[in-house]
Write a structure and sequence with these properties.
It contains eight helices and no strands. Helix 3 packs across helix 7. Keywords: Membrane, Transmembrane, Transmembrane helix.
Length: about 270
C-alpha cells in the first residue's frame, strides 16, 4: 500500500530511483570493475601474441555493428551478476563476523540497551505508549515471546529478535516519515559492501599481472587485505548505527507526533 504525501511517506514509484541508485553504485559499477579485473587476469594466462593490454585493445577494436550491442548486453549482465554475488559474499562475511563477535562477548542482543537509551530520551510515558501501539516492541521489554536466533536473513543478518524490531522500525519510517528514513545509511553500507570484491581482486591483479618491482607486487595483497578489513569494520559500525537510529527515530517520530497533538489541542 502506498503512503500518502500527507503521512510523509513515499510511494513505490518515488522510491524506485533510490533503488536504482543502490543497484548502480553497489552492484553494477563494482561488477564492471570485477569483470574488467577478471578479464585482465584471464588474458594474462591465455596464450596470445603481444602484450596483454595490446591483445585486449585489438580484440575490442575488432567488434563492429551488432557485435557492439551484444558485447554491451553481455558485459552489463555479467557485471551485474558478478557485482551482486560479490556484495552477497561481503554481507555473508559481515554476518559471520558479527556472529563470532556476539559469541565472543557472550551478549546475544544489543537492543535492550538501546531501548533503555530510548526510554531515557523520550521518557517512560511515551515509550510505554509506543509499546502499546506496536506489539513488536514488547520484545525489547521482555514482555513478548522471544523468537530466538534462527538462520541468517538477508544481508547476512542473524534473524533474531533485534532484527525483527529493526525491520519493523525501518519499514514504518520508510512508509510514513520522510524526515527520519535511513536511506543514506543503507546506501553507504551497500556501497562499502560492493567495494570489497574489486579491491581484493585488484590486489591480486597487481601481484600477478603488474610489471612493478617485486616488493611492490608482493605488498599488494597485504595492503588489499588491510583495506578490506577497514571496509568491513566500517560496515559493521554502520550496521550498528543503522539499528540504533532506526529504533531512536521510530521513537522520535512518535514523540514529535505526540507533541504536535498536544500543541494543536492547546
Amino acid at each position: 500500500m502506498e503512503a500518502s504525501d500527507k503521512e510523509g511517506g513515499v510511494s513505490f514509484s518515488e522510491r524506485l530511483p533510490f533503488y536504482v541508485v543502490v543497484q548502480l553504485v553497489s552492484v553494477l559499477l563494482p561488477g564492471a570493475a570485477l569483470l574488467t579485473e577478471v578479464t585482465v587476469l584471464g588474458i594474462h594466462y591465455a596464450r596470445h601474441p603481444g602484450t596483454d593490454l595490446g591483445f585486449l585493445v585489438d580484440a575490442l577494436s575488432g567488434i563492429r555493428g551488432a557485435g557492439i550491442v551484444l558485447f554491451a548486453a553481455v558485459g552489463v549482465s555479467g557485471a551485474f551478476v558478478l557485482g551482486y554475488l560479490s556484495r552477497e559474499l561481503a554481507f555473508g562475511a559481515m554476518g559471520r563476523i558479527e556472529r563470532i563477535s556476539r559469541r565472543w562477548t557472550r551478549r546475544k542482543h544489543r537492543a535492550p540497551e538501546s531501548w533503555q537509551r530510548v526510554r531515557d530520551l523520550v521518557g517512560d510515558k511515551t515509550a510505554d505508549a509506543l509499546v502499546e501501539q506496536h506489539h513488536v516492541l514488547k520484545l525489547l521489554d521482555g514482555k513478548g515471546k522471544d523468537l530466538g536466533i534462527r538462520s541468517g536473513a538477508g544481508g547476512g543478518h542473524v534473524a533474531d529478535t533485534s532484527l525483527e524490531v529493526f525491520a519493523y522500525s525501518k519499514l514504518w519510517l520508510r512508509g510514513r516519515s520522510a524526515a527520519f528514513r535511513l536511506d543514506f545509511v543503507e546506501l553507504e553500507i551497500n556501497v562499502l559492501a560492493g567495494l570489497l570484491g574489486p579491491v581484493l581482486l585488484f590486489a591480486v591483479d597487481v601481484l600477478v599481472v603488474g610489471d612493478e618491482p617485486g616488493a611492490v607486487r608482493i605488498t599488494a595483497v597485504p595492503v588489499g587485505l588491510l583495506l578490506c578489513a577497514a571496509v568491513l569494520r566500517s560496515i559493521r559500525r554502520l550496521r550498528r548505527t543503522e539499528r540504533w537510529e532506526a529504533l531512536r527515530n521510530f521513537a522520535f517520530e512518535a514523540a514529535i507526533q505526540q507533541a504536535e497533538s498536544k500543541r494543536a489541542i492547546g
